[in-house]
Amino acid sequence: MSVVKSGRLSLSNPLVPVVLLAALVAGFLVAQRDEKSVTQPQILGLLWPNPKPLTQFELNSTNAHPFNLETLKDHWTLLFFGYTSCPDVCPTTLATLSGVMQRLRAESKADRLQVVFVSVDPQRDTLDQIARYIGYFDPSFIGATASPERLQQLTIQLGVLHERHTPDETGGYLVDHTASVLLVDPSGHLVGIFSAPLQAEDIAQRLQAMRRFLEEQSGRS
Questions:
Q1: What's the total number of domains in the chain?
Q2: Which uninterrupted H or E stretch holds 182?
Q3: Which of 18, 119, 123, 207 is deepest in the core (most CB within 10 A)?
Q4: Residues spanned by the domain of 94
Q5: Could you say which DSSP state residue 56 is in?
């Protein structure tokens, strides 16, 4: 049995090297176990172990409160960027996100989850128009937009691209934009990307897998 002096092992005891070696081996095995337990999970689209923290931004929103970092706190947020005049991708994606919410609600797993549609066409999309548009898909959806300068406070951070085409003879135009859906965690970190093809069941399953894994990691820290 080792002898403890002033809180330290006595190196004069012949058993000390054996004890130290055993401690080192045990520590190595624990470290290996911990490393394995946080190995990158096979979840397509998960941004881990280095999720991107968002910095302050502020957009106008359809719920009478600014959409900013505070809005993200304590929520899991699915973000999609588009515009209400979009002929195909936007309505299809919003319908898919509505399906995601329906599936998770049916399983009582939609707690603290919010969907935010950000218009990158502030020249045409007023908040009232955005509210009517997203209301067709799900009354819980939040809409947001702002001036191009304020939009960039958020889009640049997320790597979201958008570009307006030259208007035609009627003044109408299309807007190219990133079609992926982004997941932001309750601490304001970009943690996941869902890219095309988008299917409600697939997104719901991967979202829940991401959330379980990240909440487990958060509980360890």
A1: 2
A2: strand 181-184
A3: 119
A4: 52-220
A5: P
